[in-house]
Amino acid sequence: MSENEMKYPPIPPDDHTRKLTFAQPECDGELTHIGLVGDTYTVTVSGKDADNRFCVIDMHVPPGGGPGPHRHNYEETFVVFDGEIEATFRGDVLTVRAGETINIPANAPHHFHNASSQPARLLCICAPAGIENFFMAVGVPVATRTSPPPHLSEPETAEFIQKARALAPQYHTEVL
């Protein structure tokens, strides 16, 4: 076997059991829209669609939205389409604007927040997949890509945090 063949094995045959995934977040009734932490996340490509190699989530983050500090054992890339977010990575804050991309390495503590007065739209790509299942386990279904999740009372918020902390390890996530 040549050195090149050792670095780059031959491409395997096409797997005809795998299907093309086509998603239309604005009008596809087949997509899952999840209300979570004040945001709405739409799963456009799930792990089951991509042989668990990755997932893609369209995120609608209203002013003030975004998750609290956390970390997980998968890579997470954010492409900001509209608006801006403040991303905190290992304690350093960076403003990420429309047209910009950041990648969060696996296991690194981070969070993001929409500190602006306008909604932000992000595309989140996670590899490998799995976090979309955590979102479905702790979030609530909503009607559309921009439908706000129900407002939680103080006791409901405490219950949500407790549930998220309890389920997070099953999805290789740590709520900080």
Number of domains: 1
Reading off the top of the CATH hierarchy, the class is best stated as Mainly Beta
Oligomer: single chain
CATH fold-level label:
Jelly Rolls
Total beta strand runs = 12
| Distance between the first and last residues' Cα | 48 Å
By CATH, the architecture is named Sandwich
* Helix/strand structural class: alpha+beta
| % residues in beta strands | 35-45%
Shape summary: globular
Record the strand order, biggest sheet.
Answer: 8-5-10-3-2-1-11
Average predicted local confidence, pLDDT? 93
Helix-strand sequence: HEEEEEEEEEEHEHE
Uncertain segments of ≥5 residues (pLDDT<50)? none
Question: What is the fourth-level CATH superfamily?
Answer: Jelly Rolls
Number of helices: 3
- Percent of residues in helices comes to 10-25%
Largest sheet: 7 strands, antiparallel
Using only C-alpha atoms, the radius of gyration works out to 18 Å
Task: Summarize the structure in words.
This protein has helices at 3-7, 131-138, 154-167, and strands at residues 32-36, 39-45, 55-61, 70-72, 75-82, 84-89, 92-97, 101-104, 110-113, 120-127, 140-141, 173-175. With 176 residues, it is of the alpha+beta class. The chain has a single domain (28-144, 153-171), classed as Jelly Rolls (Sandwich). The protein has a 7-stranded antiparallel beta sheet, with helices on one face. A 3-stranded antiparallel beta sheet has the order 7-6-9, with no helix packed on it. A two-stranded antiparallel ribbon has the order 4-12. A hairpin with a 2-residue loop joins strand 6 and strand 7 (92-97). The longest helix has 14 residues, at 154-167.
